[in-house]
Amino acid sequence: MPMAANGQMGGRAFHEALERHGLQLTREETRVLQVNVGLACGLSCRHCHLEAGPQRDEVMDLETMEAVIDCARRFRFESIDLTGGAPELVPDLERLVRALAPLTGRLMVRTNLVALDGARGAALCELYRELGVALVASLPATNASQTEAQRGEGVWGRSIEVLKKLNALGYGMPESPLRLDLVSNPSGAFLPPPQQQAEQKFRSDLFRRHGISFHSLYTFANVPLGRFRSFLERSGNLDAYLAKLSDGFNPCSVPGLMCRYQLSVDWRGRLYDCDFHLAQGVWHGGGETHISALAELPPPGTAIPTADHCFACTVGAGFT
Amino acid sequence: METYYDPKDLGSFAEVAKDAPELAGKFFAYYNEVFAEGELTEREKALIALAVAHTVQCPYCIDAYTRACLEKGSHLGEMTEAVHVATAIRGGASLVHAVQMRKIAEKLSL
Ligand code: SF4
């Protein structure tokens, strides 16, 4: 006998879900700066909410990087998170990384792993190691077929090789301060497993079969935007997926949502509350602001605009 | 095309409680407890359920436990192996009865 399923179709509005629970989405102290350095990427992952890929050439220029560095100097964020696209493909990345590392408690760079392959990748790994940059790597599954279904042919073997090289450099080893965390998004229209269970399984699978170590695994639901939304539409999964996200609304996840603690900046220097709002063009503060014009951090209590893709952050254990 | 099985019917499962609520209540309470984490993890239990679903050939269960296995972090290789375990037991259960067939044939034969 199967478990009873909720047959309701179609999503509800996110602001209504908040209202039903007497909640509002407002800021706490802003401690994190997320910098999306561009949409160029070597891969075209089928779940990418930004539709990044080899055909995209939007990347952050030096002038915008200097504005980001200035901002980091003015406000001293607890942590700065570089993402993309593939940050490795941004020509002046080294300038940004070298300047930001001493300005924050924790500088992290998100990587698709494959972009750390080859000579430039090896040089960047050395740079990251020298500066103690934390790495957050995408790996959806511990098997080739589901990894490649999401990220493209040949990605599994190359990802495993890069993980081994990172381990050899000290990244992800149990006692090492060189932090290597993994991020797993489901390879399809289903929700991720609970983080702790998935972490145990990744740890034993990767170590048993490939001798690979890492620090933590984060599991996140796919956000119904960009290429993932197109997949949901094409495959006839959109209504059921949206219903699943809204049915799974967990009010306890709201206090920890990342938008309450961070600002996101795009490759042109414009500000948002998170990378998903960035993908959808939902501005921070209700209008276009350039990072160079940010005179003060938004005070606690500032309202955050919501959209229905916010349901992907509040399903189950939440997206923090 | 009309068929006996409509995937949307899975969502109406709880309606079996309508005319015999106490029995349904007992069944669902037991059911939920069986699938909660115990000596086995929820992931392992979902894999067993998927294999059994193939043995009883229940399309509702195959739908529900394919999703459940994926959402509990099992991958297709593991799920396919679980179905092979069901298949091996199912096939083996027939084959092992060949022992009876052979014994009886032997007794009957010159
Ligand atoms: S998408 Fe998520 S992180 Fe962004 S504003 Fe909505 S709840 Fe916050």
TrEMBL record, chain A:
Q: What domain of life?
A: Bacteria
Q: Does the keyword Iron apply?
A: yes
Gene Ontology molecular function terms on file: catalytic activity; iron-sulfur cluster binding; metal ion binding
Q: Which Pfam families match?
A: DUF3641, Radical_SAM
Cofactor(s) it depends on: [4Fe-4S] cluster
Pinpoint the Arsenosugar biosynthesis radical SAM protein ArsS-like C-terminal domain residues. Answer: 191-319
Task: Answer whether the UniProt record assigns the keyword S-adenosyl-L-methionine to this protein.
Answer: yes
> Sorted alphabetically, which SUPFAM superfamilies does this protein's record hold?
Radical SAM enzymes
CDD domains membership? Radical_SAM
- Keyword field: Iron, Iron-sulfur, Metal-binding, S-adenosyl-L-methionine
- Residue ranges annotated for the Radical SAM core domain, each copy included: 36-171
Query: PANTHER family given for it?
Result: FE-S OXIDOREDUCTASE (PTHR43728:SF1), SLR0304 PROTEIN (PTHR43728)
Name of the protein this chain belongs to: Radical SAM/Cys-rich domain protein
Q: Which organism is it from?
A: Citrifermentans bremense
The organism's taxonomic lineage, starting at the top: Bacteria, Pseudomonadati, Thermodesulfobacteriota, Desulfuromonadia, Geobacterales
UniProtKB/TrEMBL annotation, chain B:
Q: Boundaries of each Carboxymuconolactone decarboxylase-like domain copy? A: 21-100
Which molecular-function annotation in GO is an example for this chain? peroxiredoxin activity
Do you know which SUPFAM superfamilies this protein is assigned to?
Answer: AhpD-like
| Pfam families the record matches | CMD
- Tree of life domain: Bacteria
Q: Which InterPro entries match?
A: AhpD-like, AlkhydPrxdase/COmuclacdeCOase, CMD-like
Checking NCBIfam families in the record gives: perox_w_seleSAM (TIGR04169)
Designated name of the protein: Carboxymuconolactone decarboxylase
| Source organism (scientific name) | Citrifermentans bremense
